[in-house]
Structure prediction request, 300 residues.
Amino acid sequence: MEKRDVIIIGAGIAGMTAALYLKRFNVDVLMFEKGIPGGQLNNTRNLKNYPGFMETDGSILAQNIFKQVQEINVDYVNENVEEVIINDKKIVKTKTKEYECNQLIIATGRAPRVLKAKGENELLGHGVSYCAVCDGYFFQGKDVAVIGGSAAALENTLYLAKLVNKCYIICRKPFLKGEDMNIKEVESLPNVEIIYNSNVKEFVGNEVLTNIVLDVDGEERVIDVAGAFVSIGYEPNFTVNSDVELENENGYLKVSKNGETNIEGVFAIGDAINKDLYQLTTAVGEAAEAANYIKKKWYK
Prediction:
């Protein structure tokens, strides 16, 4: 079994920031990521609220941070962590190997929430998507719908409106939520129609999506669309096999101001934790705080 000082699970902006700080503190660190470094950051376009950038592309920012990680020789494994065991030791298991560490940082982020509507699973990848940035290109000049009325839905709508003929927003509430600037911009777009007080009853199509059946204020309405982008929030990715339960709220881990969970030496940062604001800036700050605390407490 390979032994390391600190293991980080997840190479989103939080995980990579923690790795940068720890490595510069001369702490032995190993980082795991099952997908592309950057995580959900790769699905963000027209990033305008990150300090120092008037506007940038999330995937470019992710690539640049990963280059920084590589330049200082952070050990990195592009493999899925299949199990984490926390008892008297902290053990991380992949399909091929087991690792033990002194401190563990959970930076696994979160994944898009599923709507669980009829036809959603059957038409996934055939018109139904959870990533507008990934799949929006395929619907150029067509009519699409964004399901949701919060920040993610607004961002997806702003991206899609530049590509498609028309974009419906299916909002279950009588109002949109998010940054005021984004709401005003969405409301001003000529090819966007917002359908308030609406819920998806069914995604319809044989081999590909052709329309969506809605319940609007108790009445049925059918809209013809080629694509539907479910944007109703996120759920945390992390699960753990532990003799001691990690305190959480709806799966989001509870942590101290230093990022430590209720188990000593186990930390969580970024979108994996329970907090009020899920932003790149907060993730970076949490990573720096956790890394600094680990350095001061265990590696003086």
Summary: Residues 138 and 227 are 9 Å apart (CA to CA). The domain at 2-111+234-298 is CATH 3.50.50.60 (FAD/NAD(P)-binding domain).
